[in-house]
């Protein structure tokens, strides 16, 4: 169930599968004009594993991150990082560092990007610690000082002024990088049993942080929460949610100071027929639920603002596979994917550089006879998702 289950997957692995399944499959290249020397464009990239996050600075600079489960449950996952250069997706490795899972990525420029997740270097004996990677324009490298920081980061956001990393351990904490040093910023009135998932900052004095809190701790029920950063502290806001089980999976900031949050709300966590997307909007004074016309949708995992003021949201349906929706300014409306995907497909994250260029990433869950997930990358070209 959404990113909440990603925390649970840290404790487990994937059972054996033939190594031959690790072959790479690529989509059919786009046709080239006769006599043109331009390279063929291939927007798809499919390998065993899953992609949990995506971020872009331009149509020719996009990063997506995730992990490849090990066929042997006693072995750690392998980092998965891929880059789009405007022509094709290419896998990028971290020198001398292979193991872990990545859940978030943020890009400041072509020479400055960040990815966060679980450090599995000592797997299976050592507990999972924070893994923070930095891209300097030529190489991804782990931040050595944070490799033993307790807890697993689920989200990261970055601007030219600094980097924020949301970490879930016994309490919620945020790691802040500014002025060449990392500091720990505790969340006001932290609650145990929290799952930090969503993080969106617009600068040093404004931003949002959210996720879910177990109520009571150790139970099957969670309550969505959102906090706002005012430059000095994190302030909790009351959310208009009546469902007994809910979570915030992603937050995006709109032009003018507004914001959108998406996730899941459940009347009964044991009955899938009662699971529907949670869609909230910040109007400058309070968070309010907004309508969503998304037939068959169950949960929205990712949201991203489209330059110009609208937004994309992605997730999974109860029976229809991937879910993609567009914000109209007052409501969410379903947008079909091409081709229609199976019920096992799900999209975890989305990013957009313009009204005619956006990317969504996720995974095809294991099918009968094949227990390894496979990555999914979908592209919006201004007319269709495919």
Structure summarized in a few sentences:
This protein has 386 residues and is an all-beta fold. The protein contains one helix and 28 strands. It has a domain of 142 residues: Neuraminidase, CATH 2.120.10.80.
Architecture overview:
- The protein is mainly beta and 386 residues long.
- It has a domain at 45-186: Neuraminidase (6 Propeller), CATH 2.120.10.80.
- It has one helix at 2-9; strands spanning 50-58, 61-68, 78-84, 89-91, 100-109, 112-119, 129-135, 140-142, 152-159, 162-168, 172-178, 181-186, 194-203, 206-214, 222-229, 234-237, 245-253, 259-266, 275-282, 287-289, 292-293, 297-305, 311-317, 322-327, 332-334, 345-354, 357-364, 374-380.
- Strand 7 and strand 8 (140-142) form a beta hairpin.
Number of helices: 1
The outline comes out as globular
Largest sheet: 5 strands, mixed
Strand composition percent? over 45%
Q: What is the fourth-level CATH superfamily of the domain at 45-186?
A: Kelch-type beta propeller
CATH architecture label of the domain at 45-186: 6 Propeller
Helix-strand makeup class: mainly beta
Spatial strand arrangement across the major sheet: 21-25-24-23-22
The mean pLDDT is 81
Please give the share of residues in helix: under 10%
> How many strands in all?
28
- Computed over alpha carbons, the radius of gyration is 20 Å
